[in-house]
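Exercise 3.2. Students should predict the tertiary structure of the chain below and write it as structure tokens, then compare their answer with the key that follows.

Predict this chain's 3D structure.
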Amino acid sequence: MAEEVNWLRERLEELERIERPSASDGERQAAEWLVAQFAELGAEARIEAEDAHGTYWWPLGIGAALGALGAIAGLRGRRLLGTLLGALGAAGIADDFPPGKRRLRRLLLPRRTTYNVVCELGDPEAERTVVLISHHDAAHSGLVFHPAIPELAARYGLTEKTDTSPPLMAPVVGGPLLAALGAATGRKLLSKIGLVLGLGSVAAMTDIGVRKSVPGANDNGTAVVALLALAQRFLAEPPQGIRVILLSTGSEESFSEGIKAFGERHFDSLPRESTFFLCLETLGATHLLALKGEGFLKMRDYPPRALAFVEGLAEELDIWLYPNLRTYNGTDALESRVAGYETVALCSCTDHKQPGRYHWPNDTAENVNFDTLQRAITLSDAAVRRLGKSWL
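Answer key:
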């Protein structure tokens, strides 16, 4: 086990040294590094270049700014204009959250290239397919991700009272929504609150945009090296009766643009009744878990049958999973979940039910819990092999 930890750590430290924000040259370098790592193991992987924007702070910031302008218009008596600006801002923001259509960024914002890495193993003729997902881009930091915030919440017992994270994006979309309501009804208090929320959101998005990306060891280098470890296992002992797609997406941190592009390219060729998606996300905190549900505004629970399969398998392997957690956030698993596939998001959390060093500069390999990472690899390996023998 110590040998495997050293192997994982070495590759994680290599990856974290690549500055790799979404849809950037660094992301491309990370994709090329991953292809080379697969090749060293004896597996062939390919890069699928896709169209992307590469941020979330621009579309959300524009929507928040429209809301702020709508609030100002409402306060100055231009109620129709204020209503329209606020409604447009709120709609643009809501539509940008995964798995939305993201019309604002597609129509108005600059486009770049993102890089998905695909490695296919197992039985290429098998009727069943399992897709294991990681992402190799890294997030920008920002004051809204300061580790003192969850620590303060834990100190006052707020995290103990709920198994669902707070809807952090509610104020972002709430600003323009209140601006629209305030203008439409003539209630200046609503317009003033909408203005404050809108300006605060613009400031937060600006702060995120001007910062550099973090090393991203836990989020989500742990899942990238997990795919490599799984490839090594599958090459040494190929799983029977199942086709395996190891997918590492780009631009997850810009609201899952990479997996959305993968879906647009491949979902039509992946039957829903015989394809299982297992999303690996931030596997380096204290406790392993299978998310019960997630979503930025609307909570979307994961399929009970898929969750029961993974949780039952974990129990067989004596792997404890932190129970019953949901998050008002989004992983790449949302796209396959909404598309109708059996999907599970395998993640990890701290004792305070947090991802651990989330979007912060100390998200480095030295702070990764490799025991949790190894448990995730073991569980994922077992899930693939079990699905090859018997479906859900």
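Discussion points: The radius of gyration is 21 Å. The CA atoms of residues 41 and 236 lie 10 Å apart.
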